[in-house]
Target: TonB-dependent siderophore receptor
Amino acid sequence: MSIQFLPRARAASVRSRRFRHIARALPLAAVLAWLPAQAQTGDAVHHAPEGEGAITVDGVRQAYRGDFSVKEIPQAITTIDAETLQQNNILRLTDALDLNASVVRQNTLGGLWDSFAVRGFAGDENLPSGYLVNGFNAGRGFGGQRDVAGIERVDVLKGPSAALMGRGEPGGTINLVTKQAEIGRTFGSGSLQYGSYDRFRADADANLALTDGITARLIGYYEKGDTFRDYVSQKRWGFLPSIGVALGDRTRLTYDFEWTRVEVPFDRGIVVLNNDFDTVPRSRFLGEPGDGDTVARATGHQLRLDHQFNDDWSLLVGASHRDTLLTGFSSDAEQTASRQKLYVDGHSLSRQRRSRRYDAEHSVVRAELAGHFETGSLRHRVLIGGDFDQFEYDNYFTRFRPPAVSTNPSDQAGYVIDIDNPIYGQYPLPATSVLTNRLDAQRSFGFYVQDQIELTERLQIRIGGRYDNLTLKVDNRLLAAASRYNSRKYERFSPQAGIVYELSDPISLYAAYGQGYRANIGADFNNNIFDPETSESIEAGVKLTALGGALTGTLSVYQLTKDNVLASDNNNPGFSVAIGKARSRGIELDVNGHLPGDIDILLSYAYTDAEARSGVNDPNFGYQILPGDKLINIPDHNLNIQVAKHFEMAGRAAQLGAGMQYVGERLGETGTDFTLPSHTLFRLFGSVDVIEGVELFGTISNLFDETWYASSYSSVWVQPGTPRTATVGVRARF
Model:
């Protein structure tokens, strides 16, 4: 089985053009390099055995932060660190983000990309969610769900950040900090684990000091196994090396490489008929095994030069390039009621058959200067930077669609499967026809400045702004030559302001305001390029430190609004339409740290009120969206609690912990009252050092085997959550 590929000569031409654009952007870094980019010091908290000092605080570089402690930043920031990831044996970014209540799951394209909302707002339903990698826009594309093997920690940067980050969601930004070569050290670890559904995984991480100034860190993983879904198995592997070079005492060069691959059948989940979530077992696969695997792969490069001029000024210059491809066939439930036989007899599911080839390239060049100076009695801490960002998305999409039920088609003509007694391969796989053949491109230059001014010992203000010049282009190859091309240019200034007041040593108050935008990629069915989303954000909160800094907490309130929101155009798959305005507001509480008695604690709660603010016809199913209607997959209440105890067992270090996640009811289909039920999941984890350098670990997820639903797009595309699973493994360190 194969799908149609684009002509090789044209593809080569496209790539050649892309690299020329990157080359033109390189002078941007040189121009900015003379500016005294990034002395970004934050707080890193590490566990230490009791009696040896419970907490150590080290300065670490943080993207877009500047030289500030967390309590000085007028923004809510939460970090999911390496210890927390390892405790829970988390393997995917999606599962890591579950630990923060401000982030909720969205439609994952059959489990093949990362899609999430922060503070109630997600991006384009037709694209995976974007994120930063080491401060660079590097998360766009179609490389499959991100594995955490190469991730040191996950930073959730909430609220208004447009002045620095520009083109993103107003709810917040996810920044992945990768495991990078640590110069001058040699250490490593490797693990083997086996879990439910015959899942096997092996991974290794070796940091090797080759010389005094050159270190290579080699990271790799391989995973294979079945799932709780019938006929759905998976295979994943990746190689994620990092090379660090010390160019003197004040300069460091770092190169990171990414090569990953995912092979898994496309899986839209289950159907829910008449709000009966027992319509089919949660294991039932309603696709077609004959479609084979969908393959997603990613190849990425990132190069960063970090130079400390002196104690006051530092510079970061860097570039990244990521190439992703997703390709394969799927058989999906038809969503339109007039074509769906299931609504007639209650068991015959009419299906579409689709093929996808999503080819994307994302390139970024950026430079940033960080430093501080004084004017009279005022101390200024500034960030000055600029970037070039280019994203190109080659979308080749084909489809077979069942005829209207009113024509009384045969089961074969409707590509029907019996949901009660599925017989796979009963009919020949229907041929598909081309529906989308389009190249979308975004290219932008941005410049920003931020100044945080200390007015008094306790009072600071932050002002900043960002200018962006954006060009959008569309080449719709299915149209006639005279109308296939379209382009638009935009200019945008995004201001921000904030204030921080230190009420006392452990307590600080803050407030922030910001505007921003996110470029909507592509064009509608008529080849009209969309206006960008625009947003406005306001937030206020209080930050608390206790126990000598061992325990930190943030309580925040916010309101976000945005215009020009897009939704998928179901009548024309692969296209989107603008649906208007949306608003989100809420309250959040995050507590993280180390308690007396060698106890780690994590608490994250969010109340989110996210709704449409304009009345439009939903393009997906023709339903009316009214002001006040909830946004899809956004619960009012979300809570995560985790406690872990460190102790000794037979003279060996050990830990035991438990966690709980509650996700409230949320809308499962836009413009309807179809609602996903709430769920509460419990988990256990533990580990013990059996001998020096060798650790035995285990986890149990969904301890009480609750039936739950991760996300939904419609009542016939519902993603069931994983039943109770157990994993045991061994980890060795050197």
